[in-house]
Design goal:
Number of domains: 3
Distance between the termini: 75 Å
Largest sheet: 22 strands, antiparallel, barrel
Radius of gyration: 28 Å
Number of strands: 47
Shape: globular
CATH superfamily of the largest domain: TonB-dependent receptor, beta-barrel domain
């Protein structure tokens, strides 16, 4: 009996073991990654039975992780889907808990800026564009403005050659209506202005552009959009760090050289770089010199906490010859800049449903605009237009020295797995504090200098909901500004996947957005003590209101995508300088700043992407912009009066891009068209110039990989040698070229 009992026990245990092997573990978990080993959030994971029936579904969390608390008979599998990636099915049990998705020909990116959390662009209602490293490297731009000029809805305007003042306009907004971030560091001047002239493209990993008001997420300055630059991070390709060297030279005595190092060692990753640009540009007294360096360092503190330190410095010198199309160059005039940015951030995701980040940043920009030589008077002349009076030069020494301390805390809580009827919900709470300080003016004239400081506070709440094929994002921010007081700005965004197929007529996405934006006054507008341009401490914030909607359609198994967006923007309380007359006692003209202007801008964007064969990518974009001045302090002015289009914002613009990878050769072609736009000569020509002629520009770049470590590179800008002016009076560069080598060890 005892023997039979033993046999029975063994048989029973074996039966239990068979049942256990016939059932997949009661917990099925893993993580989803992209080809760069970055985790993919909000991907759909389906648990399928042996006959492909759905047992359960869930969404990956912000770290790309998923989990099923189910049992499943032998032969069941997982199916992972996300727009812009190739769907993948894996059989259980998982041989590797990390599942890698391959990108589709027309891929999607994971965007951080649109919602302040990692979100696949296929689930974002906002109009976004991402310039990836795979596009930056083939184009070989010297400065980031060369990248941004082809983004739909964006106009870049440079007053001359490299290093000249460079402004950016999004969807008809002013040049100080865009929030600019570098690895989360806000780098606008107080009041929103930012000059892109010396921001180089070295060591950039990607650029994210979000069009439409984003003040509900980022506070002041995000009136028409946000541009965020992300620098390279070290990755563990093997057990040693990698060194990068590059140098090239060309026309106008142009030289560019740089070095970088990157790597990852267990829980520590690092990436550092330095670069130098020298060019004489065209014409006398127009040289530009720039040195840029920085580092991005990360350290894992335990399994779920990371410390990251980012630092970047830039020093440049640009001669400013002025409007040389109208007269001789301004000798002895230059702009010297020294910019520095740094951030220290701690991120923690110790639980699957709660992520936190605390970040402190510091930014300083010191700009010295100086003219050391007083040139002889001259009368401007251009193409039959003659100035009505002579222009006089004068010596000056103007300083713009601003600093910002920024503290940012963000908490993201995820509720629901996405598989339940009530979906997945992400609640974001964020708090920001800014201390802005600055000195603006000529030190030799104390009465004309502005020294000021202010503290700004802001709190954001955002609710994101994933309800099947519907994606909602609603948020509101309370801003307490040191100049204008309290303001409330909301934002609402929705995206709906009307279709999810991948055939000839693929996925269809509808999207809608509403948002409001605010912008604080500059230090000069609020605090200037100079009677000729007296600051007004009672200024209200500039405001914007925007609606936009669009549709995205994929074709032919993700080989092509067409996107159409329509937008309508209204701007009010725009700050304008007004003359208050002449004071006989002081023999001075008096003036101050007031909220008087009101404008509108509506239009459409068409974006086409195609990858018909492996290695070939085509992009095309067209923007139509209808802008008008509705109220003005100078209502009858031919440029700034009521009814006029907005200055330097063209009605028609577009671009065409081609990237072709063939064997060892990568070829990049970029063509940009900018239509006629309102402008002013600002020198009193008779008859006056009130518009700038349209122009087109074709650039070509190539990389030939001689060996795995060595590449030959070359660039030809303005290959057709067009003569044009982006801003009246400032001739743009004619055809230029550079060629050189890249090394990677």
């Amino acid at each position: 009996m005892r023997f039979h009992g033993v046999v029975f026990s063994i048989t029973f245990a074996a039966a239990l073991g068979a049942v256990a092997w016939a059932q997949i573990s009661s917990t099925i978990s893993g993580a989803v990654l992209d080809p760069n080993h970055a985790y993919i959030p909000r991907a759909t994971v389906r648990l399928l039975s042996a006959d492909s029936a759905e047992v359960a579904r869930t969404l990956t969390d912000q770290q790309g992780r998923f989990r099923f608390a189910h049992t499943c008979a032998a032969g069941c599998s997982l199916e992972i889907q996300l727009s812009g990636f190739q769907a993948k099915r894996v059989v259980l049990p998982l041989a590797n808990p990390e599942i890698q998705l391959d990108v589709a020909r027309i891929q999607e990116e994971v965007n951080v800026t649109a919602n302040r959390t990692e979100t696949p662009t296929g689930q974002i209602g906002s109009s976004t564009s991402t310039i990836s490293g795979e596009e930056i490297s083939p184009r070989q731009p010297l400065v980031v403005s060369d990248l941004l000029g082809v983004v739909p809805g964006v106009t870049v305007n440079r007053s001359g050659g490299l290093g000249a003042i460079t402004s950016l306009f999004i969807r008809g907004g002013d040049s100080d209506h865009t929030k600019v971030l570098l690895d989360g560091v806000p780098i606008n001047e107080p009041g929103g202005a930012f000059d892109f002239s010396n921001l180089t493209s070295d060591d950039l990993e990607r650029v994210e552009i979000v069009r439409g008001p984003q003040s509900a997420l980022f506070g002041s300055d995000a009136m028409t959009g946000v541009v965020q630059f992300f620098t390279r991070r070290g990755q563990a390709e093997d057990q040693r760090p990698h060194l990068r060297l590059n140098f090239d030279a060309g026309k106008y005595n142009t030289f560019k050289g740089g070095a970088g190092v990157e790597g990852q060692f267990q829980k520590f990753d690092c990436a550092g770089y330095w670069s130098r640009i020298d060019t004489d540009n065209q014409g006398p007294d127009a040289d530009f010199r720039d040195s840029t360096g920085g580092a991005n360092l990360g350290l894992g503190l335990g399994k779920h906490t990371q410390l990251r330190w980012v630092i970047r410095g830039d020093s440049s010198h640009a001669s400013t010859p002025g409007q040389t199309a109208f007269g001789p160059p301004d000798t002895g005039a230059f702009l010297s800049r020294a910019d520095g940015y740094s951030s220290l951030a701690v991120k923690d995701h110790s639980t699957s449903f709660w992520d936190q980040r605390l970040m402190y940043t510091y930014e300083r920009s010191r700009q010295v605009s100086r003219d050391e030589i007083e040139d002889a008077p001259f009368t401007p002349v251009f193409d039959g237009h003659v100035g009505q009076f002579a222009l006089f030069d004068f010596v000056f020494d103007f300083v713009n020295d601003t600093r910002r301390h920024h503290l940012d805390y963000q908490s993201d809580m995820t509720l629901g797995s996405g598989g339940q009827d009530w979906g997945q919900h992400i609640l974001t709470f964020a708090f920001d504090w800014d201390r802005e300080e600055g000195f603006i003016g000529d030190p030799s004239f104390p009465s004309g200098a502005t020294s000021a400081e202010r503290n700004n506070f802001g709190g954001t709440f955002q609710h994101q909901a994933v309800l099947g094929r519907l994606f909602l994002s609603n948020g509101v921010r309370v801003e307490q500004n040191g100049s204008f007081g309290r303001a409330l700005v909301p934002r609402s965004s929705a995206a709906f996947l009307l279709r999810q197929r991948t055939g000839t007529l693929g996925a269809t996405k509808l999207k809608f957005n509403f948002g409001m934006g605010i912008k604080e006054p500059s230090f000069t507008e609020s605090f200037s003590p100079e009677p000729s341009f007296l600051g007004n401490p009672n200024l209200r914030p500039e405001r914007s209101r925007s609606f936009d909607f669009g549709i995205e359609q994929r074709f032919w198994g993700d080989l092509a995508k067409v996107e159409l967006n329509w937008f309508d923007n209204r701007f009010r309380d725009l700050i304008q300088f007004e003359s208050l007359g002449f004071d006989p006692a002081t023999q001075m003209f008096l003036g101050s700043f007031f909220n008087v202007n009101r404008t509108k801008a509506n239009g459409a964007e068409i974006i086409v992407e195609s990858a018909p064969v492996a290695g070939l990518r085509l992009t095309a974009a067209y923007t139509y912009l209808n802008s008008r001045i509705l109220e003005s302090s100078t209502p009858s002015d031919p440029v700034f009066g009521v009814g006029q289009s907005l200055q330097r914002r063209p009605r028609h613009s577009g671009s065409l891009g081609i990237i072709w990878n063939w064997r060892h050769l990568t070829l990049n072609s970029t063509t940009r068209y900018v239509g006629r736009r309102v402008d002013s000569d600002f020198v009193g020509l008779n008859p006056p110039l009130t518009s700038a002629a349209p122009y087109s520009k074709w650039d070509l770049a190539w990389t030939y990989r001689i060996t795995k470590q060595l590449s030959y590179i070359g660039v030809i800008d303005n290959i057709l040698d067009r003569s044009y002016m982006e801003a009246l009076g400032f001739p743009a560069l004619r055809m230029t070229y550079r060629t050189g080598l890249r090394f990677r060890f």
